[in-house]
Amino acid sequence: MRLETERLRIRPFVPEDAAELFQVLSDPEVMRFLEPPFNWEQTEAFLQEAGSASPPLVYALERKDSGRLAGSCIFHPYDGPEEYELGWVLRRDCWGQGFAWEVTKALAVQAGRMGLESLVIEFCPEQGASRKLAEKFGFRPAGTRDGLEVYRYSLKKRDENERQKEVF
User: Fold this and answer.
1) Is 2 within 8 Å of 10 (Cβ atoms)?
2) Distance from C-alpha of 25 to C-alpha of 163, rounded to nearest angstrom
3) CA atoms within 13 A on the CB side of 64
4) What are the beta bridge partners of residue 148?
């Protein structure tokens, strides 16, 4: 999968992304709500296992203006082939610039093209920014799983997503 937003390229990872991905995944502030910061070996393993899976579980987010890695995004089946999980991990200097919104919008459009029924975002209860984005986009609370809040966005029942027209 290769997609473009106004400012980003969503593309498969390549081995040359390892150093920049390490900068993102080793940052304690970036990883605060996810898991402990990665070391080099964990970054390489993540890149190999998740980035090189077929199809990939995560994709690179490349800035169009600089060619630098802005982070990564999650896009893979969740509880079956008709529902995908999406998410993002952005380097700190990319926070607060609307990149997560761009990624979410692009992946929602892609999910619609794929004929998916719904999308899911999971996040720690303390992640206020992720909750705010999910709610603004039209995701609805769908319970918890493994201590994470789960929000679901229906692609088939457009009337349940009052923000549908605003988003697309």
Assistant:
1) yes
2) 32
3) 10
4) 145
